Every structure is written in structure tokens, then in C-alpha cells.
Amino acid sequence: MAGIRNPKAQGNIEISAERACHHLVLASHLFHKLAERR
Predict the structure, then answer these.
(1) Residue 10, CA distances (Å) to 4, 13, 14, 23 in order
(2) The dihedral formed by the CA atoms of 37, 30, 32 and 17, expressed in degrees to the nearest 10
(3) Where are the domains of the chain?
(4) What whole-number distance in Å separates Cα of residue 33 and Cα of residue 36?
(5) How far apart, in whole angstroms, are the C-alpha atoms of residue 38 and residue 31?
(6) What pLDDT score does 19 carry?
(7) Model pTM score
(8) pLDDT digits (tens, 9 = 90+) for 1-38
(9) CA-CA distance, 13 to 6, in Å (whole number)?
(10) Which residues touch 23 (CB under 8 Å, ≥6 apart)?
């Protein structure tokens, strides 16, 4: 069976430090909201 690959998902991407920080804050916020619901 052959798999279908997404070449864009396989490589490394470079993002700014500001964008990375934004993603970390967002993920942290979402995990806190999830924990509150339990």
C-alpha cells in the first residue's frame, strides 16, 4: 500500500520568535481552558 505524503508538512519551517511565542501562549491558554472543564 502506497502512502500519500504532503511534502510541505515534511520539511522544517522557519518562523519569527514573535510568532513562535504567540503559538506557545495560544497553546497554553487552550490547555488551561481544557483543564478547567475537567
Answers:
(1) 12, 9, 13, 19
(2) 180
(3) 7-36
(4) 5
(5) 11
(6) 97
(7) 0.62
(8) 567 777 777 778 899 999 999 999 999 999 999 999 98
(9) 14
(10) 15
